Amino acid sequence: MKKQWWKEKVVYQIYPKSFKDSNGDGIGDLKGILEKLPYLKNLGIDMVWLSPVYQSPFIDQGYDISDYYKISEVFGTMEDFDTLLAEAKKLGIGIVMDLVINHCSSEHEWFQKALKDPYGEYAGYFYFEKGKDGNPPSNYRSYFGGSAWEKVPGTDLYYLHMFAKEQPDLNWENPKVKKELFDMINWWLDKGIAGFRIDAIINIKKDVNFPSYEPDGPDGMCACTAMVERVDGIGELLGELKRETFAKRDTFTVGEVFNLKEGALEEFVGENGYFSSMFDFAPHMLTEGQNGWYDTREVTFLEWKKTIIQSQMECQGKAFLSNIIENHDEPRGASRYLPEYAQNPDGIKMLGCVSVLLRGIPFIYQGQEIGMTNCQMDSIEDYDDIDTYHQYREAREAGLSDKEALEACYRFSRDNARTPMQWDAGENAGFTKGTPWLRVNENYRMVNVADQEKDPGSVLHFYRKLIALRKSEEWKNVFVYGEFLPLFEEDESLFAYARTDGEKKAVILANFGKEEMTVKFSENLGKVLLANMYRPQQINAREVVLEPCEVLVCQVCE
Ligand code: GLC
Ligand code: CA
């Protein structure tokens, strides 16, 4: 595949509210991020994706934007942003902004104008539709529960919101809306940002007849994804988006794409796709149940591993996916993908290693590099996430007790990954001098950056070596552009694969099992490139014994 600058990068996701507070108001901010740039540089990071920092009422933590051209005062000023961008650039770090263009905030000027004149120009920026027989236009359930339609006060109209009612969907059939959005995107690109992570993008194409579908739950509604999955024509919109904005320069884009139609991978992220890359959510989707978090599926190691392998094989030679263990919407990987006996620093290093050396772009979510874990809150009031409230309510309505509903939140709440970054063992984990907006995970005294800096055997040091290996002159071509070859696919505790560029070859071996195991090869295992347990520099054998939670990256020779 073509060599492109962004393929060689390692990206770090910052959730600004929880990264570092500089002024003691308990909320992370841009100056806090600025302060930590050297830390990111040291880790080997080339690009930082900032979850939204725009002006917002924070109904959905900034994914509800009320002014695309302003920085939220909670985070600082545009001047702070420009400083951050410039200082990051000096360190060779690009800034990737979050692009939320399926919807805006109900406090956005466009929506406010639409409400004032529900048959006027700005109503056409949204989907204002007549109800049917006293009911909403269709039976769609929003992602955060309840109808996806909300009454426009004083009229018989409803507006569409696939997420919260404070997040009205923008009308992508309206050329004026597209023009406004494209101008805004170009305005940000003019500033010199590296690119965009593109939020919920599959939802922008609507079937404007808004047909109702077979109900899929006791509420008589169907998930709004039923429409997304059936409607055609998103390609035209995405093609236009690319042509009018990203394609004019060498912008990096990564799509948050769920519900991709079969066979559409190359159209979306092939060499000439709409985006540079998109996240591989296949392993995260495995737990998905029919009715939300209280009703998830148990997933075996083998199933999880095979799903990752399948994604890798599907995009080989065709596309470059972005690989994650966790993000701001998903629970912590260390709590989710590791069996209990492996939930320790060795296990966490092993998980990081198998993920970062996959083919594709590694995204590391803040705190992952020190092994932050899920965080249990005492009661539903301690959470601060609209989706968690909705999932809790659903669980209670389905007859679960408070305790049972909370247990579902312990496992899947989006706040698991949103607790403040653990910088040191001091008060509030060094995140703030004030009161943190969301509780700090109690394990911060054991899991924090400062302690790990001092310990060469820590998860943090391991991540540094891991990233350095992936980017090293010697191995870059193998780990970035090389082929992915699955090994021992049916093994129920070994996660193993090889990477090769045709000249050099490395194997990654990880024992997720409880027992030690012997792995036999037809080739010779040579130089040890990375290990999380003691290993001499050379193996020089055709077999190797792996301890539980051991990961080994090793050169292989004929
Ligand atoms: C994406 C974001 C999520 C947000 C949603 C609506 O899925 O990652 O945090 O709630 O879009 O914007
Ligand atoms: Ca602050």
From TrEMBL:
Keywords: Glycosidase, Hydrolase
Span of domain Glycosyl hydrolase family 13 catalytic: 13-418
GO BP of this protein: oligosaccharide catabolic process
MF terms (GO), sorted A to Z: alpha-amylase activity
SUPFAM superfamilies: (Trans)glycosidases, Glycosyl hydrolase domain
Pfam family, one: Alpha-amylase
Protein family (similarity comment): Belongs to the glycosyl hydrolase 13 family.
Protein name listed in UniProt: Alpha-glucosidase
